[in-house]
Specification:
Largest sheet: 4 strands, mixed
Strand order of the largest sheet: 1-4-3-2
Distance between the termini: 23 Å
Number of helices: 4
Helix content: 10-25%
Shape: globular
Radius of gyration: 19 Å
Order of helices and strands: HEHEEHEEHEEE
Length: about 180
């Protein structure tokens, strides 16, 4: 069995103090390509409880962007331009990118989720929930596909589900850390 070349404390030693010029930077979005925006928007809003923050369309480039995330709905602007700007500033959003025609192209096989060969890379997004078991019970009732249930595998107390495009979503909270 392989062992880590990173010893305890090595990670912190590898880090630098943030440069002052990065003040104000924050992680705003993670982009996922989706085959069918209707299925994906239904999943992220109905199943995961997110809201549509905004939409940007680029017909001349044949794609649209849908931003979803968690926020109080009263904060979402009704003015179209203000809503687009809001979608591009709300922290921790997911950008669902739809390339026109993928939903109707019968030969389109879908996107690589990064969790299989060839080319493992992107792994998953993580969703913090108050109760992993209750959330996973709900997902099971909604016929969501599971990669790992909370009591499966070697790490107990967290789960993995898949969205309609096969991207993995970790269902967790800090209670699994001992």
């Amino acid at each position: 069995m392989a062992t880590s070349s990173m010893k305890e404390g090595d990670a912190q030693k590898s880090c630098s103090e943030p440069d002052g010029q990065t003040k104000g930077f924050y992680l705003q979005q993670t982009m996922l390509r989706v085959k069918d925006p209707r299925r994906s928007l239904d999943f992220y809003t109905r199943v995961l409880g997110m809201r549509l923050l905004g939409q940007l369309d680029f017909p001349e480039l044949s794609f649209s962007l849908f931003f979803v995330g968690y926020c109080d709905p009263s904060r979402i602007p009704t003015d179209p331009l203000a809503r687009k700007r809001f979608a591009l500033t709300e922290p921790a959003a997911i950008e669902l990118t739809y390339n026109y025609g993928t939903d109707t192209d019968e030969s389109f096989q879908g996107y690589h989720n990064g969790n299989s060969e060839p080319g493992k890379g992107f792994g998953h997004i993580g969703l913090n929930v108050p109760d992993v078991y209750a959330a996973c019970k709900r997902f099971e009732e909604l016929d969501v596909k599971f990669i790992k249930k909370p009591d499966g595998g070697k790490i107990k107390g967290l789960g993995f589900i898949q969205d309609p495009d096969g991207y993995w979503i970790e269902i967790l909270n800090d209670k699994f850390v001992k």
